[in-house]
Design brief:
The protein contains 5 helices and 5 strands. Helix 3 crosses helix 5. It is globular, with a radius of gyration of 15 Å. The longest helix is centred in the last third of the chain and has 21 residues, at 118-138. The protein has a single domain, classed as Nucleotidyltransferase, domain 5 (2-Layer Sandwich). A 5-stranded mixed β-sheet has the order 3-2-1-4-5, sandwiched between helices. It has helices at residues 37-48, 68-84, 96-106, 111-114, 118-138; strands spanning 3-8, 12-18, 25-32, 53-58, 89-92. The protein has 145 residues and is of the alpha/beta class.
Length: 145
């Protein structure tokens, strides 16, 4: 089984993939959103990687409310379900981009060098949270809110 996480952005889709044991999340190269051809690229990638589940980051305001960006991601998730047949799991992505930027900065990358990598690192952080929650539920524990 493989899980793909998507950090849906205006310019790019940040992507991350789980290992088959559902333990580790690894960033993949981001897809650039130009025209509609990115849909075909995404669906082909999902098929090639034999993705069984998809997680889509849901941007929320700091108070937990939803804004216009969350609605755009919900529409993307609905379109993805219609096109792929997989129902995406929507997961709160608050502060994943901030954490991803800090991680890349700690690795010595400047803001300019982070472009193109940031979205996929954010997706990998999102996926790691999802994998940890799955593991917690599988172990019979209650997932953290």
């Amino acid at each position: 089984m493989r899980i793909l996480a998507i950090d849906f952005g205006r310019k790019r889709l940040g992507l991350a993939l789980s290992d088959p044991t559902l333990t580790v999340a690894s960033p993949l190269p981001a897809l650039t959103r130009k025209g509609q051809e990115w849909w075909a690229e995404l669906l082909a990638l999902m098929e090639k990687l034999e993705v069984d589940e998809v997680v889509v980051g849901l941007p929320r305001n700091m108070d937990g409310s939803s804004g216009p960006a969350a609605e755009i991601c919900r529409r993307f998730a609905a379109d993805l379900e219609e096109r792929s047949g997989l129902r995406p799991v929507l997961l709160d992505e608050r502060l994943t981009s901030v954490a991803a930027s800090a991680t890349l900065r700690e690795g010595g990358l400047s803001e300019r060098q982070q472009r193109g990598k940031l979205d996929s690192v954010a997706a990998s952080l999102l996926l790691q949270v999802h994998l940890q929650r799955r593991g917690t539920v599988a172990a019979g524990e209650k997932p953290a809110p």
